[in-house]
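In response to reviewer comment 3 from the previous cycle, which asked for concrete evidence that the modeling workflow produces usable outputs, we include below a single protein chain processed end to end. The sequence was submitted unchanged, and the resulting structure tokens are shown without manual editing.
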Amino acid sequence: FEGVRRMRIAELGLEELQKYVDTLIVIPNQNLFRIANEKTTFSDAFKLADNVLHIGIRGVTDLMVMPGLINLDFADIETVMSEMGKAMIGTGEAEGEDRAISAAEAAISNPLLDNVSMKGAQGILINITGGGDMTLFEVDAAANRVREEVD
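The workflow returned the following structure tokens.
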């Protein structure tokens, strides 16, 4: 909706920005149509995109600062994200039977990202959060589903 000229300016800006950052996540504005409907306001569409980034980034920071069974420190995060180039971020939530696989599938198929695949990723961070009833097998199934996408 922004036109060819603005798209080209954005692409040139991203190329320049890529020279100065370790990791870059791009959400093309055109992809907002994938998550919106006819009644979604312009403002709300951008809030949806912001929320996806917020939840994803919070998932990374929670790995460092929130107490959990497995925690990482900044050096771990830096190792995975340093000089990696383009990145994707995905979040998924699910309930009921097969909830772990369903949440992993939702995280893998983020409709806002533009043709970004996890295939061949050099690094991956997985944050799995659940209630006290989450089983070892569910965690394993979710992590394996994400790894399958990379291999």
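Strands lie at 23-24, 85-86. We consider this sufficient to address the reviewer's concern, and the full set will be provided in the supplementary archive.
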